[in-house]
Amino acid sequence: MPLQYDFEESLGYWLATAHQAYMRTFQQALAPHGITFRQAQVLGWLVAEGPQSQRDLAERMLIEPPNLVGVLDRMQQAGLVERRVCPHDRRKKLIHLAPGARRQWEKIAQCGREVRSRAVEGLEAHERETLKALLGRVRENLTPTSTVPSP
């Protein structure tokens, strides 16, 4: 008996396939600039959240910390990031944006705007706002909340 699943009714299926199409298009937009998706991710998280440990950055990127080492090594050699000792824990290094990151970030941001524009093509302004609100609620529903023990 063949395995069956109601993919057309699966929110996960629709989110995953939309995400894959979005990311594939974004990667294709970055490629002519010599920028990889992982580099864009690193710079994006550093722009959004500021300096971070390798562990925190890897967690945000949904990869294992050792898998990030090579990306960071190449980015450091290219003058995009710097590793600096954490002022609160000298055993830990924080990843910072390097001065050379600005030019690359501008290219990444432009690619992001172009892909975002393409993704919402044909949607009215109120539909885009509804989509953002609904996706925000889905994210909130799936984000773990800290539970405070009852007294």
3D structure, described in words:
There is one protein chain. The protein has 6 helices and 3 strands, in the order H-H-E-H-H-E-E-H-H. It has helices at residues 11-30, 37-49, 54-61, 65-77, 101-119, 125-142, and strands at residues 52-53, 81-85, 93-97. It has a 3-stranded antiparallel beta sheet. A hairpin with a 7-residue loop joins strand 2 and strand 3 (93-97). Helix 3 (54-61) packs across helix 4. The chain starts with 10 loop residues before the first helix and ends in a 9-residue tail after the last helix.
Short description:
The chain is mainly alpha-helical. 60% of the residues lie in helices and 8% in strands.
Secondary structure topology:
Elements: H1 11-30, H2 37-49, E1 52-53, H3 54-61, H4 65-77, E2 81-85, E3 93-97, H5 101-119, H6 125-142
